[in-house]
From TrEMBL:
It comes from Candidatus Bilophila faecipullorum. It is found in: Cytoplasm. Its main location: cytoplasm. Beta-alanine binds at residue 61. GO terms for biological process: pantothenate biosynthetic process. This is Pantothenate synthetase. It catalyses: (R)-pantoate + beta-alanine + ATP = (R)-pantothenate + AMP + diphosphate + H(+). Keywords: ATP-binding, Cytoplasm, Ligase, Nucleotide-binding, Pantothenate biosynthesis. The keyword Cytoplasm applies. SUPFAM superfamilies: Nucleotidylyl transferase. Pathway: Cofactor biosynthesis; (R)-pantothenate biosynthesis; (R)-pantothenate from (R)-pantoate and beta-alanine: step 1/1. The keyword Chloroplast does not apply.
Amino acid sequence: MQIVHTPEALRSVCAEWRREGLTSALVPTMGYYHAGHASLIEYARSAADRVVVSLFVNPTQFGPNEDLEAYPRDFERDAALARDLGADLLYAPAPESMYAPDHAAWVEVPALAGTLCGVSRPIHFRGVCTVVMKLFMLTLPTLAVFGEKDWQQLAIIKKMVTDLNVPVRIEGRPIVREADGLALSSRNVYLTPEERAQAPSLRRSLLMAAELAAGGERDAAKIAEAVRTFLREQLPLGEEDYISIVDPDTLAGVERIGQAALCALAYRVGKARLIDNILLRP
Ligand code: AMP
């Protein structure tokens, strides 16, 4: 596995692959790998001739009071894991090489970014779209792989690619979980043992929502309220950011569960802000 640190080096390796007629898959990440990241890299390995993993804690997607400085990092371990999983190229740029001091161009999808996580993280998805677009323009991959854990991010990237005719196939992959149901996240390391013990109730609340929908409940507000009540009891160390039921593609609020709907939530638990989601099928 080759490791490169500059946009120019990334562009030149990928251009050479294209000249050779090879397909490529890009897996954008912020590092501190867990089995969720591994599943994306493994999928990429199975889907293309060459696999590029980017490892970049992107400053522009963090708000002023968020955890940019504290975000967990372990470059050596991540690089070894990416190599063992069969990545061909690891792209680990310094922030200065991704953003010039006078950086001024942004990619935004406001219609999908103003809801769910966007309410408490107003600049987050602008930073995500911009860095992902930059990675796409440097790599020009055949496909790019994202986790369904960040469902809103995936929906926004799909919309960005459709509306701007970006020639990259976007693939979403299922959420990887701990044995007790907690969705794997680099931020789970922030949890105290007490908080960690309560955190799996997020998953349990979503399974309950799916059961209610499958059992015939059509009223989205009732399902959301049931999730809220459950979490107030089961996760007293946490505090709701949002519990919402939305259209899986447009992320618009849903009142009646007709076709599939997405139940998504964010909860603040100590220093961590945890997100999870589930598709509700009537
Ligand atoms: P991050 O490093 O947290 O920015 O995540 C990089 C990619 O891994 C994103 O596409 C995430 O959606 C995905 N990801 C993070 N956690 C999980 C998980 N538990 N299961 C599947 N994919 C995940």
